[in-house]
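Q: I'm building a small set of examples for a reading group on sequence design. Run inverse folding on the following structure and report the sequence directly after it, with nothing in between.
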């Protein structure tokens, strides 16, 4: 009789331990799932900005940079004039977790109506690549100077109503060089059905144009 009671108690203890192990296992699985969800990475907007002549015309952060919400990218600065060369400019979106699936972003680059087209190299409209690796679309070339007109840079967003591209564009000298500029810290937002255009008209006048981007969902 004692052996039977002991056996029964051992079975009961074993059952409790097994149940506890199952609960711990399930809790661990849930915690892992929660951690996995928390690791979803937000998309980042990238700017590639390089001089192809006198480097003093292309200020701020040159080379490649990437910025994600809630921060803007670091500033780039247009100060082209009659010095040799200009500034090469391109954009990309790094989206490792495909959070922007269905969205499309473009940048258009055109000389202003009646302006000297030689100031705005590689005119056209280009898709901003949205990829799971860091890459950029085709480069456009800013080489504005004292010739007539300026270069219009236009951003469009389509495909999703919750994707927004914020554009900061402000003058740090003669404001006539930065068409459609706002005061520093203010920005215009491109979203589906509402593009944003800024005009780059840097020349020999004092100062230049500062430019920053931010990509976000709302």
């Amino acid at each position: 009789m004692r052996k039977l009671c002991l056996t029964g108690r051992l079975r009961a203890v074993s059952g409790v331990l097994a149940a506890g192990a199952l609960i711990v296992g399930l809790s661990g699985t849930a915690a892992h799932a929660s951690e996995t969800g928390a690791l979803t990475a937000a998309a980042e907007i990238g700017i590639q900005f390089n001089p192809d002549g006198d480097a003093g015309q292309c200020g701020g952060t040159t080379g490649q940079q990437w910025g994600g919400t809630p921060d803007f990218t670091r500033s780039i600065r247009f100060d082209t004039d009659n010095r040799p060369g200009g500034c090469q400019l391109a954009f990309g979106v790094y989206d490792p977790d495909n959070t922007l699936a269905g969205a499309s972003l473009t940048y258009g680059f055109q000389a202003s109506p009646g302006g000297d087209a030689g100031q705005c190299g590689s005119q056209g409209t280009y898709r901003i690549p949205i990829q799971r690796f860091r890459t950029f679309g085709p480069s456009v070339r800013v080489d504005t100077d004292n010739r007539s007109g300026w270069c219009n840079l236009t951003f469009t967003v389509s495909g999703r109503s919750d994707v927004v591209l914020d554009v900061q564009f402000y003058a740090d000298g003669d404001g006539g060089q930065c068409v459609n500029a706002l005061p520093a810290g203010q920005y215009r937002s491109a979203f589906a059905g509402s593009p944003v255009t800024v005009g780059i008209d840097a020349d020999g006048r004092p100062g230049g144009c500062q430019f920053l981007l931010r990509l976000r969902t709302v």
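Helices lie at 2-38.
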